[in-house]
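Notes from the 1:1 (GR / supervisor)

We went over the backlog. Supervisor wanted to see one worked example end to end before approving the batch request, so GR pasted a single chain during the call. The sequence is below; no edits were made to it. Supervisor asked that the structure be written out right there so they could see what the output format looks like.
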Amino acid sequence: MNFKNIENKSIRQAFADSLFELAVKNPQLYVVDIGLRPSLYLDKFALRFKSRFIQAGVAESNAAAVAAGLASSGKTVFLTSFACFSPALNWAVIKQSICYNHQNVKIIGSHAGLMSADLGATHQMLEDVALMRSLPNMEVFAPLDALEIVKMLPVIAHSQTPSYLRLPRPATPLVYKKAPSFTIGKSQLIKSGKDITVLGYGPILTQLFSEDFDKYSLDIINCSSIKPLDSETILKSIKKTKRCLVIEDHQKIGGIGEAISSLILSNGLKCKFVHLAVDNNFGQSAQNYFDLYHHYGLSPLAILQSLKSLLSKK
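Structure output shown during the call:
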């Protein structure tokens, strides 16, 4: 796959378009927004569904409580903001009012990871997966591209379980040729190989589909259902390759890499394992996120070096 011929498309825009279509069909679908309506492309929703769009303003904890209250009355509620504000600032209310009470709230954390490069460290949320994975009753998802979110969102909306959906800021490459099916708790094998299992979630995986990686025989698995995790698919691949590379635009601590390493150990598998993620550091400003990927060891070059290391006999 040559990225020069690949179309880029905004996952945020695809999310907003899909949410609007769901709201047309479901009069019980509400949005509670935390002062960032234009950034999540929700103007059309707010104009069409005035009574179902609640603008909570810059009051993250109150917004989570409002969302929980609406859900307790039978509504399907989307709580929308940047990940650095929700779940980062209102985690305690999410825990107590949403998860503990098993309320049907879908928390949308946009601008996650290093992809919000020029917004700097304060807006590059690198701990959200760790925060949300740790909560009982909470499911966690991250689409690979704008086509996957189209299939993912209706499934999440129809589930009665609280969930967190992680979205990136920029338009990113389309990996899928058509929208894939999506099932909670299932991963997608998007490329088959025999030598190394590569696991991850979100657009950082799109780096693996350049010509630089064509010479490697890789099982590339999109773990867009981060929690619940598809243990069966992951273990089957690792048993075959006996080598595992996990890539994520997130802190190493609390990320999916820890979940997969625990899975490997608890099942008594022997394999070579590498985890590429931000290693106990905050982000910083950059002209674009590729510079940050290079700085934090998440670039194609770092991935290639990891593949070579996994294939070495040392």
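Supervisor's comment: The longest helix spans residues 11-25.
Batch request approved.
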